[in-house]
Amino acid sequence: MLAVVSASTGLEGVIRSRRFDWESRQSGLSQRVRARYERRNNIAETRTKHRDAVRVLLEDEIEDEEKRKRRKSIKLAKKQKRTKLRLKSRERRVYFLKEAGKKEKTRMRMKNKSKKREEGEKEEEKERRES
């Protein structure tokens, strides 16, 4: 925003403008007024720089927050995956134990049947001997 002000409009227009272009200014003002405008330009530039710096900081903070969220979600996903795998392995163990238990029960039944059969055969032999 550059303002070119003629002497007829007065200082109001110049004071309202944030920056004052001294190269385009032909008539000479007092050194004090000139210093005021230069100071005003410097302040405006400083404000602009500060705004830009704040904007950059905010953008960086937003990016950092997004990175943190992404890292958190990745960690959470890994944790869920580990938990899922742990549960799966536990389920597998339980399943195998159940299967082993079933096999053991079946084996015991067969053993009991064979014992009963042997006992029955022994009793039959005793009965044959006695008769």
Can you give a write-up of this model?
- Residues 99-131 are annotated as: Disordered.
- 80% of the residues lie in helices and 0% in strands.
- It has 131 residues and is an all-alpha fold.
- Mean pLDDT is 79; it is low at 1-8.
TL;DR of this structure?
Residues 99-131 are annotated as: Disordered. This protein is mainly alpha-helical.
Q: How are the secondary structure elements laid out?
A:
Elements: H1 12-16, H2 31-130
Biased composition (Basic residues): 104-115
Biased composition (Basic and acidic residues): 116-131
Region (Disordered): 99-131
- Computed Rg: 48 Å
The low-confidence runs, each spanning 5 or more residues with pLDDT under 50, are 1-8
How many distinct beta strands? 0
* Helix content, binned percent: over 70%
* N-to-C series of helices and strands: HH
Number of helices in the DSSP assignment: 2
Q: What fraction of the residues are assigned to beta strands by DSSP?
A: under 5%
Average pLDDT number: 79
How many discrete domains?
1
What does the overall shape look like?
Answer: rod-shaped
Structural class: mainly alpha
Most strands sheet: none
**Distance, first to last CA:** 131 Å
Region (Disordered): 99-131
Biased composition (Basic residues): 104-115
Biased composition (Basic and acidic residues): 116-131
Tag the structure with descriptive keywords.
131 residues; 2 helices; 0% strand; mainly alpha
